[in-house]
Amino acid sequence: MAGVGIRDHADPRLADLCDHFGWIGIGGIGRASRYFRSWNVQQATLVGKVHKVLLFQPGWWLRHRPDWKTIKAFSPQLLTGKKDRKDDTLLRTVVGIFAKDGIIMEPATDFAPELLVKQGHIAGRSLGNKQLRDVAFGFEMARQMGALDIGQTVCVKNQAVIAVEAIEGTDSCIQRAGQLCKSGGFTVVKVAKPNQDMRFDVPTVGPKTLESIAAAGGRVLAIEADRAILLNRDEFCRMAKKSKVSVIACGVESLARLAA
């Protein structure tokens, strides 16, 4: 097995799990492609998150030093402004760079389908009718945000939107909801985009998500069944019980019942 990690993003322990491993900067896509070709890699998958907020910090260009292949591919977004910087636009460009070099990106869930969460109650107490209505309302709001490729997460209470995820990421969105809703008890909803490309940016939750919700005063996490990844399930469930956060995975049919 071979892998490439982005510095300051990937866990250093990944290198110990691979036969071949290389480190790159956030702009080192050309180097990553060269690594893979030298190792005769033809299939790969994207895992984890690149913090796009880095692109809006002063001097990011000098610190991350994008290679020529990255500059050439992303010049419509980064130099000329002829293309937008939506997540899907940027990630499809990344996938396209590798494809031109004969490296096909596949969905991570093709290799580990057990990561996709199934419909039903996952952890914590059962939800009351008021919370279920917030879940149904939150799913509708989150899907609309996803359709615009703005973010995947919304925080709601009493069928009112408190916070919407954008470039800052899920944890910061949840933190902001806690600052705006001092009484707590809000619901966090995280869903896939209506036309989700399962090769990248698949909604993912884990113990860290629960930590953020509990610290902010949230009480419910709702995710989309069969289109969201759940990490470290055993630890996740233990933490949900300890933090008193209820977790539910909803599908289309169950959401229709909630909204009725």
Provide an overview of this structure.
Helix 6 (129-147) packs across helix 10 (252-259). The protein has 260 residues and is an alpha/beta fold. The chain is globular and about 55 Å long. The mean pLDDT is 91. The chain folds into 2 domains: 2-106, Rossmann fold (3-Layer(aba) Sandwich); 113-259, Cytidine Deaminase, domain 2, CATH 3.40.140. The strands form 4 sheets. A 6-stranded mixed β-sheet has the order 5-12-10-8-6-7. Strands 1-2 form a two-stranded parallel sheet. A two-stranded parallel sheet has the order 3-4. The chain is built from 10 helices and 12 strands.
Top keywords for this entry?
Rossmann fold; Cytidine Deaminase, domain 2; 2 domains; 6-stranded mixed beta sheet; two-stranded parallel ribbon; 10 helices
Secondary structure: elements and pairs:
Layout: E1 2-6, E2 20-24, H1 29-38, E3 43-44, H2 60-64, H3 68-78, H4 87-100, E4 104-105, H5 108-111, E5 120-123, H6 129-147, E6 153-157, E7 160-164, H7 170-180, E8 187-190, E9 204-205, H8 207-216, E10 220-224, E11 229-230, H9 233-243, E12 246-250, H10 252-259
Parallel strand pairs: 1-2, 3-4, 8-10, 9-11, 10-12
Antiparallel strand pairs: 5-12, 6-7, 6-8
Helix pairs in contact: 3-4, 6-10, 7-8, 8-9
